[in-house]
């Protein structure tokens, strides 16, 4: 009973003392507005102090916007949006602030009416229009107004995200974006390619978007595809790299915002990535981690890119691959004491840690997610196969002396010793603070999984199951929740300090 009272007091004290550190941060800014028209204007103002020329598309005419960015880039112009029937208020103000003198409209009168033209001319602006009888002809006609290029991009005219993702690269290279459909190669596009003597084509999208027949009719085609729009955007970023000093992020389904984002990304020669509204997709996380991107500009308000995405973008752990190894499992129970099996504690903590790090934006690989067993070498192999950035093995301790208690972290000096100790030094104090246990410090030891893992690696001994004090803490779900949060914070701070 005396031990139980002492344990309860320790837990209560630790709850009061332990406040998870704010996750380490990347640099993130947001470009937003009350509507798509204001978002586009504010994006243009971020990229252009003055814009004598502007390319204008209808706010709902997504197809018209597909070919706009490369053309606008050659004009030194941002892409802006308006209502179809009348000049949007934010646009009118933006044109005045940008000191615009010339507007080129892309699309017919169904997208931008003659009334808008009249309003623009009333502002003493020069107005011209490029149009076509459909989206395919419009894209071809836009290409005719561009400088000749040896290559062109071809996308499905209804796959808006694919066109947006490639637009900054296409613009920088001077490649027009041409359209076709899922049935085959459109005549409008085929004729343009022939007349312009295009020698190479970049096809964006899988065979469901541009089939084999159409692909084979294109001059020297290469295809970039993926299982979804995020994988396509990630593959574009890997295959055709742009600068990453200020990566632009936009919601993969907010086409109007994405067009504005592509416009400024092209202007600045920066990468454009697409995100889900609520979380950064794994494919995008991988690109961010691989490219070590740390500065982001999000285009769009909270209705399209929610706060959780901003939180993930700020976290230094975003895109890092973390291997979590819950020690023991199945027939190997590990340490036993006070009604606890080490293998169960390890797995519970590991799953909670997996959830927190995934929520933070990391890419998590587990050695096990249930009561299974792997050999020590298999665990090491799995970490290597995952190309993990760090390796964390979770354990609980035991001792013949029930008075032995506390929390400790081990590292080995065989591989990545410098970063292993840095990781250990970030995690150890946060575990102690989370649990309210005795601090047994950071130590070296040749435990197999950290000795033979070549990435920065640590082994955590969360507490002693043979200690009534520690066992009582480790039985607490609340304590294990705090422990997982503490480890996650330490991991994030480690990446921030690298």
From TrEMBL:
Q: Which residues cross the membrane?
A: none
* Keywords attached to this entry: Hydrolase, Signal
| GO terms of biological process kind | peptidoglycan catabolic process
One GO MF term: N-acetylmuramoyl-L-alanine amidase activity
Q: What class of enzyme is it?
A: hydrolase
Source species, domain of life: Bacteria
SUPFAM superfamilies, alphabetized: Zn-dependent exopeptidases (SSF53187)
Task: Enumerate the spans annotated as MurNAc-LAA domain.
Answer: 380-492
Which InterPro entries does this entry report, sorted A to Z? Bact_Sporulation_Assoc (IPR051922), Cell_wall-bd_2 (IPR007253), MurNAc-LAA_cat (IPR002508)
Cleaved signal peptide residues: 1-24
| Enzyme Commission number(s) | 3.5.1.28
Q: What is this protein called?
A: N-acetylmuramoyl-L-alanine amidase LytC
Q: Gene symbol?
A: lytC_2
């Amino acid at each position: 009973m005396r031990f139980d009272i002492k344990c309860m007091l320790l837990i209560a004290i630790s709850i009061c003392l332990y406040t998870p550190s704010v996750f380490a941060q990347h640099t993130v800014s947001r470009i937003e507005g009350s509507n798509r028209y204001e978002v586009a204007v504010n994006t243009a103002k971020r990229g252009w102090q003055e814009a004598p020329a502007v390319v204008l598309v209808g706010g709902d005419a997504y197809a018209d916007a597909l070919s706009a960015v490369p053309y606008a880039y050659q004009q030194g112009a941002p892409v802006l949006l308006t209502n179809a029937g009348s000049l949007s208020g934010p646009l009118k103000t933006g044109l005045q602030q940008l000191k615009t003198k010339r507007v080129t409209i892309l699309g017919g009168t169904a997208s931008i009416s003659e009334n808008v033209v009249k309003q623009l001319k009333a502002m003493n602006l020069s107005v011209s229009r490029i149009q076509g009888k459909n989206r395919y002809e419009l894209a071809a006609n836009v290409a005719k107004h561009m400088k000749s290029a040896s290559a062109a991009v071809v996308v499905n005219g209804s796959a808006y995200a694919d066109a947006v993702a490639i637009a900054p690269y296409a613009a920088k290279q001077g490649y027009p974006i041409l359209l076709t459909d899922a049935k085959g190669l459109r005549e409008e596009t085929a004729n343009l390619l022939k007349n312009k003597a295009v020698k190479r084509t970049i096809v964006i999208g899988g065979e469901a978007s541009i089939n084999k027949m159409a692909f084979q009719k294109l001059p020297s085609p290469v295809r970039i595809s993926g299982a979804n729009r995020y994988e396509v955007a990630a593959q574009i970023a890997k295959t055709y790299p742009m600068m990453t000093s200020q990566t632009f992020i936009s919601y993969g389904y907010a086409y109007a915002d994405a067009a504005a984002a592509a416009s400024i990304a092209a202007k600045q020669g920066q990468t454009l990535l697409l995100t889900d509204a609520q979380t950064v997709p794994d494919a995008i996380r991988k690109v961010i981690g691989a490219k070590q991107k740390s500065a982001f500009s999000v285009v769009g308000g909270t209705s399209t890119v929610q706060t959780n995405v901003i939180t993930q973008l700020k976290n230094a752990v975003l895109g890092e691959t973390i291997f979590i190894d819950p020690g023991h499992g199945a027939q190997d129970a590990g340490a036993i004491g006070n009604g606890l099996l080490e293998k169960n504690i390890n797995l519970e903590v590991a799953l909670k840690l997996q959830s927190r790090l995934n929520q933070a934006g990391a890419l998590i690989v587990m050695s096990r997610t249930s009561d299974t067993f792997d050999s020590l070498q298999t665990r090491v192999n799995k970490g290597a196969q995952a190309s993990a950035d760090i390796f964390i093995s979770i354990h609980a301790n035991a001792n013949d002396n029930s008075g032995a208690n506390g929390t400790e972290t081990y590292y080995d000096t065989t591989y990545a010793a410098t970063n292993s100790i840095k990781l250990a030094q970030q995690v150890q104090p946060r575990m102690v603070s989370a649990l309210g246990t005795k601090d047994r410090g950071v130590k070296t030891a040749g435990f197999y999984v950290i000795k033979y893992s070549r990435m920065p690696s640590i082994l955590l001994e969360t507490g002693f199951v043979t200690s009534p004090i520690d066992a009582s803490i480790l039985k607490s779900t609340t304590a294990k929740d705090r422990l997982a949060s503490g480890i996650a914070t330490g991991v994030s701070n480690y990446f921030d300090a690298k």
